[in-house]
Amino acid sequence: MKLRNLFTKLVAATAVATLIAAGLTGCASTNGNQNGVAQSFRTVDEIKESGKIIIGVFSDKAPFGYVDENGKYQGYDVYFAERIAKDLGVDVEYVSTDPASRVEYAATGKVDIILANFTVTEERAQQVDFALPYMKVKLGIVSPDSALITDVEQLKGKQLIVVKGTTAETYFEKNYPEITLQKYDEYADAYNALLDGRGDAFSTDNTEVLAWAIKNPGFTVGIDALGNADTIAPAVQKGNTTLLNWLNEEIENLGKENFFHADYEATLAEVYGDAANPDNLVVEGGKVE
Amino acid sequence: MQGSGIEVLFLGRNFLRLLEGLWVTLRISLIAVLLSVPLGILFGMFMTIKNPITKAISRVYLECIRIMPQLVLLFIAYFGVTRAFGWNLSADISAVIVFTLWGTAEMGDLVRGALISIPKHQYDSAYALGMNKIQAFGYVVVPQTMRRLIPLTINLTTRMIKTTSLVVLIGITEVLKVGKQIIDANRFDYPTAALWVYGAIFLLYFLACWPISMLAKRLEKQWR
Which residues on A lie below 8 Å from B28 (Cβ)? Predict the structure, then answer.
């Protein structure tokens, strides 16, 4: 009987499905402390014992973290991650993160360390613990060679392009209220506005404009270090002091051998060429002057 | 040096990586579909029970899942559960759970719709032939419902395959993310790569979804 078969199959399929679902949820392991706050981080000893460290990096933000054509992770952050794994004597497993999920990854201890161009801010510091910085970002201003802006004073009475929600927007609103801002939602729109002359200059993180100016002849970054330096640092789950202390020590020691300048040479130099001064981007030994 | 964008697809392991990404997409969505179709059919039947309590339960479940964006559900299953209970679900399992919950809700509503679309005289005729409730359901109502459900289920399946692209946000590298990685890694040397990579992804999605539509067509003919 065809119909009966169908019905029996349906019931059987449901039973199997339920079993699988039950099996899947059963895989969950409980690992919480007495306060009721879930702490799932691994100490340095636990990482060494497991023989593997899990590091969250970007996989599509060249030249900081990206995947090459052979499926291997590369970039400034990855170069540092490889060194961390080597000094711990363990293998490294990369987890691909996105800007929106970086905080969660570190806060829940799903990764041991986040090394994804993670700018230190007060809000984030309430959720994760930041180690010493290994890079710094200031604002940069890119403008056409024909009317190059080399001093902020030149911007008075001109149109400055910014992207909404960036540090550039807040910086100019606060410090130079007399400069007219043209605001865009996306980077692509902002660059187009600069290309077709709707605005006189564009300001955002210096790393971003420097890389862009090299690809776009006729445009130069006239100001490459403006405002207060935002620092970029590794982050771990809150309370993971052993790993945090280990990282801080590691960064201090690496400073002695100028490790991050070597990292810059290996990963960023080809992108920025002569347009950037490594001392404006790299932080050695965790010390920002 | 700037080259033609199409070369990017065949650099190193790039094309293989796209295929691996497609497999990740298909694996998650097909497991979720296989779980949510039978569960959804049961849920749909549950929804047609005329009882205020079961009605309220199914209503709450359906609305909760339908109103919340899948992205939020993914974050809750992956990060929220770890935060609240310390259960460390892997990304794959979180994705399967979320898409199964979602699929069950959607499928359940489709089944409910199909069930109540069977005219009352079909039940009456079955009872007139001396069938009891279960027999009427199994021999008369379910077979007719099945045929009505095929196109809707296929729709849901292909929608699920496409929606799984959200899983990148919990760290699963599926086909779209691989594409973005390839575009980004080559943005200095091959600025036009985006067009070719997205074109290839379009083709891969099509190749994944097309056989499913063909299968549905065959089933529809067979169960006529």
Answer: none
A260 in any annotated domain? yes
Number of structural domains, chain B? 1
CATH at A167: 3.40.190.10
**CA-atom Rg of chain B in angstroms:** 22
Asked if A98 lies within 8 A of B188 by C-beta distance, the reply is no
pLDDT tier for residue B151 given thresholds of 50, 70 and 90: confident
B112: confidence class by pLDDT, cuts 50, 70, 90:
very high
Number of CB pairs < 8 Å for A and B? Answer: 131
With contact defined as beta carbons under 8 Å apart, do A124 and A103 qualify? yes
Quick one: A126 and A244 in the same domain?
Answer: yes
* ipTM at complex level: 0.78
pLDDT value, residue A191: 86
Range of the domain at A197: 138-229
pTM over 0.95: no
- With an 8 Å Cβ cutoff, are B177 and A28 in contact? no
Q: Which residue has 């040479």 as its token pair? A: A265
Chain mean position to CA B4: 36
Rounded to a whole number of angstroms, the distance from the CA of B173 to the nearest CA of chain A is 7
The answer as to whether A12 is a domain residue is no
What's chain A's average pLDDT?
84
Q: Do A40 and B82 touch (CB under 8 A)?
A: yes
Same domain, A120 and A168: no
Q: Taking CA atoms, what residue in B is nearest to A214?
A: B188
Q: Are residue A61 and residue A200 in the same domain, yes or no?
A: no
With a CB cutoff of 8 Å and minimum separation 6, the contacts of B100 are A21, B31, B32, B35, B36, B39
Is B38 close to A17, i.e. CB distance below 8 A? yes
Cβ separation B39–A14 shorter than 8 A: yes
